[in-house]
Amino acid sequence: MTADLPLLHNSLDRLVRGLGVPAAGAGLIAVGQEPVLAVVGRRRRDRPDPVAPEDRWHIGSCCKALTALLYARLVEADRAAWGAPVAVLFPDLAAHPDWTGRTIDDLFHCRAGTPADLTGPEMAAAWRDGVPLPDQRSAVVARTLARPPGPRGRFLYSNLGYILIGAAIDRIVAAEGATFETALAAQVLRPLGITSHGFGPPPEILGHHCRFRIGPLILGRGRPADPTEATSDNPAVMNPAGRLHLSLADWLRLQTVFLDQPGAFLNPSTMRHLLAPPSGRGLPLAMGWAHARIGGRPVLAMQGSNTLWAATAVMDATRSRMALLIANDGRSRVLSAEARLAAALLARADCR
What we know:
- By secondary structure, the protein is of the alpha+beta class.
- The protein has 2 domains: about 1-60 and about 200-270 and about 290-350, DD-peptidase/beta-lactamase superfamily (Beta-lactamase, 3-Layer(aba) Sandwich); about 65-190, 3-Layer(aba) Sandwich (Beta-lactamase).
- The protein has 12 helices and 11 strands.
- The protein has helices spanning about 5-20, 65-75, 85-90, 105-110, 120-130, 135-145, 160-175, 180-190, 240, 250-255, 270-275, 330-350, and strands spanning about 25-30, 35-40, 55-60, 200, 210-215, 215-225, 245, 290-295, 295-305, 310-315, 320-325.
- Helix 1 (about 5-20) packs antiparallel against helix 12, helix 2 (about 65-75) crosses helix 8 (about 180-190) and helix 6 (about 135-145) crosses helix 7 (about 160-175).
- It starts with a helix and ends with a helix.
């Protein structure tokens, strides 16, 4: 795949110049081939420091698929189960009767009836909260279960649901003194050779604020975000929903586990469960991956943004290859451009 390196560089250069993105990275992985990656641009918009291949990037909600990988590893170790009722996962917390029948799978598919996010006051309090993260997540669960959920089966993209999943994992691994964060490292990241990971804003490349927002739209090129400021990322209680950063090479290595190849990280039946779309109306979101059509081709795709970053991964329907794009600019048009470019890179690979 080394022949793809000039293509990646040229594509990234057009993205950076055309949209005024400070920096962008791209990678291609395919079954049986060495990955290829490229980075272009500056670590922050107002300074000339160039990005380096080893720099770390924020992948936002692309972390959701890794939370699912962790839970899948616990299932394969007979420490967790698919279809576990949400209320049963938290026997120490009182649940509203309407939670009956809601399962861990519903949370993964964003169809459990949980709200989309923490409220504004809850977010503000979470940034200031200094208690251990498992206790913070447990408090979120207690508040959520005390209220009736929305309709089961109705799709609503929910970061809050993934906080509940992280809290369930906290309880599963608590006996060994672990937390969601340490279990993710022990069960997923370190076994795959990932060494550059951390949570929150990465220290080298800075994300960039938008100028303004209109509903879900993130618009306008803004200033760089100080990584030492708490509000340069979501609160740490949201780690299971998407606060991971890592190098582009490590992200490529990590995403390789989703390809259909020998020596798989998970049993094939487990991977099929992770990637299967749920029934019902709404976005066919599997456990971190959405089934979609981009450029007329069926793909599995994921995107992540905390509004300061944009991360995209698109995998062909045969799971034989994948394209990844990332930028330190979370504008909506950057996310859209990444999706189109990723699909184009896959189509180019099909033509060879």
